Structures are given as C-alpha cells and as structure tokens.
Amino acid sequence: MKRLSFVLLLGFAFHLVSTFAQITFPDLKPFQCGTLPPTVDALAAFEEFYENSLHHHTDGARAGGNATSSVVDTALGYLNGNGLHIDVYFHVVRSERGGAKDITHQQLLEQFDVLSAIYKPYNVHFTLIKTTYTNNTSWAYGWAQESMGRALRQGSYRTLNIFFQDCINCDQPKGVAGLCSIPHRIEVRRDFYVDACYIHYSTLPGGLDERYNLGYTAVHEVGHWLGLLHTFEGYDCEGPGDLIIDTPPQMEPTNGCPKNATKDTCPNEAGYDPVENFMDYSYDEW
Known about the structure:
alpha/beta
C-alpha cells in the first residue's frame, strides 16, 4: 500500500504558487516528473514558515506578508488538531477528438474518493464544490493555461482547482500526465490563475494508462500543491531530500513496481528507498 509523509508544508500552498510538476505520458518510459527544485527564495520562505509556526506566532511577521500570515494560522490550526479543510473544483476541459470527452461522472467521483481516502488519515479533508465541463480545444491541449484559469478557476488560494485535460504541455514529446503548482512567494497576478493542478484524463480511475490508472497521479500532484517534494529531491544521499524527517535518503526515482521493498539507492544511509510513497514514481498498483 502506498503512503504519504507529512509535516508543516501542508497548508503552505493555500496562498503561494510557483513552478509545476510535469510527468511524461503515455509511452512505457519510467514515470518522470519535471518539478523544478524549490528556488532559494522558496526554501527561505519554507524555513521562515517552519520557524514562525513552531516557535512563535506574531501578526505580520511572516514570509510573503499578510497572505502567509493567514497560511501560518491555517497550519497552526492543523497542528492543533483542526485539520486542513480544502474546497475543490473539478474542471473537465475537452475537445472533439481527445479522450477527455469520454471521462464519466463515475470516474470523477472515484477520483475524488481516492483523493479523500488517502489524505484523510493525515487530517486533510476535501469538499468537492462543483464540476464544470468546457469544450475548448486550445485549453484541452494545454496551450493557454492562463486564459483557461482566468475563465474557469474558482475560489481563492485556499481553493484547489483540478483540470482534467486531453493533453498537458503538448509542446513536449508525448505531453505530460500531470502538472501542479508548488508553494512560492506570489510575484505577479498571473500566479493566481495558474495556481491549480492539471491531470491527464488517462490517469483517472479506470483510465487508459494501465500503469497509473488508480487515480494516484492526482494524489501525487496534489501533494506538490500542498508543498510536498519528491522523495528523491536533489538526487543526493546526503542532502536535505524532501525536507521531511522520516523519509529515508533516496538517490533516484523508482522505475515501475519493484518486486520487493528493499530497493536501496543510498546503502550507506539508514532505511530503504520509500518506494511505496506517493511522492516517488512507482506504479499505482502494488
């Protein structure tokens, strides 16, 4: 069974946004995610966020100003047992010739159930507010994210918008299977409109990609939206990795579905690779 590792990064993405996670699809190459490493600025914000939320709570003394102060309030509520409560909007964006037009209502319900069931043990709760359906070839093929966001995105930075599309980053070979914003200081208004997750239709439960059709691609991407990094972040056995203390060091992503859980790319460090962690690249089904 796959699992997640969680710390204070939860909630940090409610008001902050930057780079994107990109996962190749649909050939049988290893699962890859092109999320850029956090910038120096973002890491500094993370560190300040940790310190402020753990050691003191004074109004206005937060990275990013008032917005981040509200985020710290939210994180403190999480630590105090209130949990995170996140409103969700699903957007199916389709074209006449793409596969997104075949997404069923049942698949969307199952995707939401998967997302909710996996995050619930960590006191993270989602509420599906609405599902929209839009016919627009340019948007469906990922060529105009900002204009799509301006037209369809709902709520505030606390609101999770997930777009299910025919193709994502189609300027790359084969496109990608998932793309999602990760926390960052807000610098331009455009950031708001692209603060979202973008998921290839084939990765929904029962989708065409048999390696990744249990709905876990959305789980992985939403992890990025919440501030989680890859378990092998930095590709370094001695570096900070994903910044989570209970994640064993991991040098490289997992390819496929190892026959056992003893894959160890950092043999001189304690613990095996966390191959069953959702923030690794292993297949959905174990």
